[in-house]
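hey so i finally got around to running both of the ones u sent me last week. sorry it took forever, my laptop kept dying halfway thru and i had to restart like 3 times lol. anyway pasting them below in the order u listed, first the sequence line then the structure token line for each. didnt double check formatting much so if smth looks off just lmk and ill redo it

first one:
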Amino acid sequence: MAKVLVHITCGPNDPTKAALAFFVARAAVEDGHTVALFLAGDAVQLLRTAVVDSLQGLGSGGLREHYDALVAGSAHFFLSGMSAKSRGMNEADWEGKPVELGNPKRLVQLAVEYDKVLCY
């Protein structure tokens, strides 16, 4: 099986694209691939509990359903620390979620390590 990295920069302002990114990552997990998601820019807000619970994409489903399937499938989440900080987020916003803070250097490391990189 492959290692798939999904790099997401779109946020709640584009709910269809944001949910689609999680939906595709979920499909990869369900096919048995190792999956990591790196959320940067506005995408960091997708891990706010209120957003996870309410975001619905048009034809791409609800974020909560995809998120829960990703967690159950052992997907790993990376969150840009600089993006989160600049959007007023802190650990309380992702408390209880399997999140590791990252930076551009970490994103590059992951992109080199993983077999495929999908960007949304």
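and the second one:
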Amino acid sequence: MANLNRYLALAVLLSAVTASAACGGKTIQNVLADPGHYRDRDVTISGNVIDSYSVAGQGAYHLEDRTGRIWVISTHGVPRKGAEVKTTGTIKEGFNLGALGNLIKLPSGGVILMEREHKVR
């Protein structure tokens, strides 16, 4: 009976860990496929920086994972090109970044991540 309880406890623990992992970070493709679902929600994504622009500690960087690419807007510094990053922020659609958007050739009205924080790995 003790062994059965241990196996049951292990099965419950493994189920919880699996469910927790499934709720973790999203892929860029998940976000871009249905941006309305993620709009104004916190989202965590990871990838490599393929381009970055910064002025006075603010800027934007283009993040790529194995599924796609998304622009990330930061008000507290941007990681360098080639860095591996995990970032959390809010998904926005239909934005206008004015001169910054023109500088980085960002299509008006696209989907971006307004970053709250990032960690370089």
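quick thing i noticed on the 2nd:
The domain at 25-120 is CATH 2.40.50.140 (OB fold (Dihydrolipoamide Acetyltransferase, E2P)).
anyway thats it, ttyl
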